[in-house]
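[09:14] KT: can someone run the structure on this one? pasting the chain below
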Amino acid sequence: MITVEYAFQKLKVPNKIVVTENNTTHQINYNKNINSLLAGICVNLGLLKPDVKDYVLDFDNVVLNNNKQDARTSYKMTKAYHPCFANIGNNTVYFENRNGNTPAKYAQEQALENCFKNLKDNSISIKSFRGDAASYQKGVIAVLEENVKTFLHQKRHQCRF
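[09:31] RB: done, C-alpha cells below
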C-alpha cells in the first residue's frame, strides 16, 4: 500500500539554513512545486479567475506549536514552526515553512518576491496587499510597489502606489 507521505516524497525539498551574525540559525523551507500546485489548483477549480484584477492578498506568519524534533522556541516561548501564508479569501496560494525562532519580518522580501512570481506564473493578478507590522520594511515596500496598487497595513492605514 502506498501512503500519502510516500507519494509526496518527490515534492520534498531540503531546508535552506542561514546562520546570522549573532549565531541565530534560521531554517526556511520554500517549495516552488507545491506553491505552484496550490495556485494552479485554485485556478483550475475556478476558485480564482485569471480575468479578475482586484484580488486582495493577505500575508501573515502563524506560530504553530508542536513537539517535533526540529521545532525551535518561538517568541511566544513555545516550541513551534513559524510559517508564512498568503491567502486570497479562503484560498491559500503560497506558504513557506520556517522554524519557530525565525521572526515574521526575516526574509519577507524574498518570500513576497517568490509569492508574486508564483501568482503571475499562474495568471493571478493582485490589486491590494494586506499585511501586518512585519511587512513595514523598506525592501518589502519596494516589492509591493512593483506588484500591487494598494498596501493595507493593520486595517487602519492604507498606502497607494
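[09:33] KT: thanks! The first strand starts at residue 16 and ends at 19.
[09:34] RB: yep, looked fine to me
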